[in-house]
Amino acid sequence: GEKQSSSVDKDGTTDNEKVQEEEPKNKNNNKHSLSNLVAIERRTNLLEAQLNHHKHVTLFHSRRRNFDDIDKTCRKTLQPALALEMTKADKREGGMVRRFESSSGEYTRLASEMTSTRVSALGYIEKEINDWDSSDLTRAEHYLEEIERLKEMVRVERE
């Protein structure tokens, strides 16, 4: 037949011998392991109950004892301080906006004044140039008339 491969352990027993030895133990252990399983389940339920008690009762009371005082203190001191800082920040921001609007208004006024000054100066210069042209014509006509008179005088003297 078939040759079964079995390994030999350090103590000289083969795998097949070990399985044959454990079979009666497993039958005895089934009853014992069932009672162990019930005990383990009871222990697990007890641990779960203790965990729930710790989570919902112990931690709740601990939080109330230790953190609620800190929370009350923070609400009494920090919230008013934060509200005061917010008010101060709003005032500072409002002041900055007013200063900016004032500065921009002043700049706009100065720019308008400078523009109107330039426009009026240009108008004055333009009038002066126009007057200068007409005065040059008037002067030139006046000089020509003077020259005509002088020529007439010279002719009269020559005759």
Which terms would index this structure?
159 residues, mainly alpha, 1 helix, 91% helix, disordered N terminus
Description:
With about 160 residues, the chain is an all-alpha fold. Helix content is about 90%, strand content about 0%. It contains one helix and no strands. The longest helix is centred in the middle third of the chain and has 144 residues, at about 15-159. The radius of gyration is 58 Å and the shape is rod-shaped. The termini are far apart. The model is unreliable at about 1-5 (pLDDT under 50).
Topology:
Elements: H1 15-158
Continuous helix count: 1
Rg from alpha-carbon coordinates: 58 Å
Q: How would a textbook summarize the main sheet? A: none
Write the element-wise H/E pattern from the N-terminal end onward: H
Strand content: under 5%
Class by SSE composition? mainly alpha
Kindly report the average pLDDT value.
81
Low-confidence stretches: 1-6
Count every beta strand, where a strand is a DSSP E run of 2 or more residues: 0
Helix content: over 70%
Overall form? rod-shaped
Give a summary of the structure in a few sentences.
This protein is an all-alpha fold and 159 residues long. The chain has one helix at 15-158.
